[in-house]
Design brief:
D-amino Acid Aminotransferase, Chain A, domain 1; single chain; 3 domains; Rossmann fold
Length: 313
């Protein structure tokens, strides 16, 4: 018997639908259930062939559990080692290297010094920073957001340099991205599962959260959706994520990747809507079953992106 399990938090609709779908369509010998942890000992194997992670970004104990499980052979979706190393500034740099457009972006040091540091810890930093060149490169208005982590926490729209300095002072020890604002004609959010299944959703980030997927029918330029799909696959192949969303703002016919580090993306029926919900449940269950069928005992069953694989010499 091979078990597929889901590790989740406060989600109400997706985990149970995911489990039910697997148990409905899986071949004999594969079942799905929620993860249960009663004790975590080093190098102890789990009973699961596949674990889908929806919560470890918020619970360090769970991230440690998943690394231990992966070491003992569980196929963890998404790879907890890469997820721990990943962040948005690197992702933007990697996107450019693989040919996907992103907004002009710079990284800002934290406003307050990290704990247990002093002035001597920053002798490699120029003071003042080259603010004028940054502002010319980025332009205003712009967005400032944490270089790591997801969601809309601590995201600021800044109108000018005075506004930037005032809001930067509110970010304390967070390391922030400063990013150009993209005036867009169309906006998409794309599920990507298994680095092969792509679902493109019209999305309006300026709407209230529960209305962002409520977008009127639009006429898209020829080939635009094909480009969006190709860029989505290219990003996830490089990053190695097997369950992710990618957001694109389309300016002058060119999809620009805005946010593509969402390894526990929103999949709640109440926000994504019935059709999108049914797609993500069906395809995430399908992919988890594929990984269970591929699972090999006593081997590491993780997947890695091309950036990591191509770096091995």
């Amino acid at each position: 018997m091979k078990k597929i399990a889901i590790l989740h938090g406060r989600e109400e609709t997706f985990p149970s639908a995911f489990i039910n779908e697997i148990n409905r369509v899986a071949p004999s010998g594969i079942v799905a259930e929620p993860v249960k942890i009663d004790m975590l000992a080093q190098a102890a194997p789990t009973e699961y062939a596949v674990i889908v992670d929806r919560i470890s970004q918020d619970v360090p104990f769970y991230r440690a559990y998943l690394k231990n499980a992966a070491l003992s052979g569980a196929a963890v979706i998404n790879n907890p080692f890469w997820w721990s190393a990943d962040e948005k500034f690197f992702n933007n740099a990697l996107a450019l290297k693989v040919g996907v457009p992103v907004p002009n972006t710079v990284l800002l040091p934290s406003f307050e010094r990290p704990h247990d540091t002093s002035e001597q810890s920053f002798t490699n930093m120029a003071f003042p920073l080259n603010w004028d060149t940054m502002f010319e490169y980025i332009g205003f208005p712009a967005y400032m957001k944490p270089f790591d982590g997801g969601g809309w926490r601590d995201v600021y729209r800044v109108e000018n340099k005075e506004d930037l300095f005032a809001k930067h002072a509110q970010t304390h020890r967070l390391v922030m991205l400063l990013q150009e604002e993209i005036k867009f004609d169309f906006y998409f959010r794309c599920y990507c599962i298994g680095r092969k299944y792509v679902h493109i959703m019209a999305y309006e980030p300026r709407n209230p959260h529960h209305l962002r997927y409520v977008v009127e029918n639009q006429n898209y330029p020829d080939g635009l959706l094909d480009t969006v799909k190709a860029f989505t696959l290219k990003l996830n192949e490089a990053l190695g994520y097997d369950f992710n969303t990618v957001e694109f703002a389309v300016r002058d016919g060119i999809p620009i990747a805005i946010d593509f580090c969402n390894p526990a993306p929103d999949a709640d029926l109440k926000s994504v809507g019935q059709a999108n919900f049914e797609w993500v449940v069906e395809h995430s269950a399908k992919y988890a079953i594929e990984r269970a069928l591929m699972h090999e005992e006593d081997k590491v069953n993780l997947t890695w992106g091309t950036f990591v694989k191509d770096s091995i010499v």
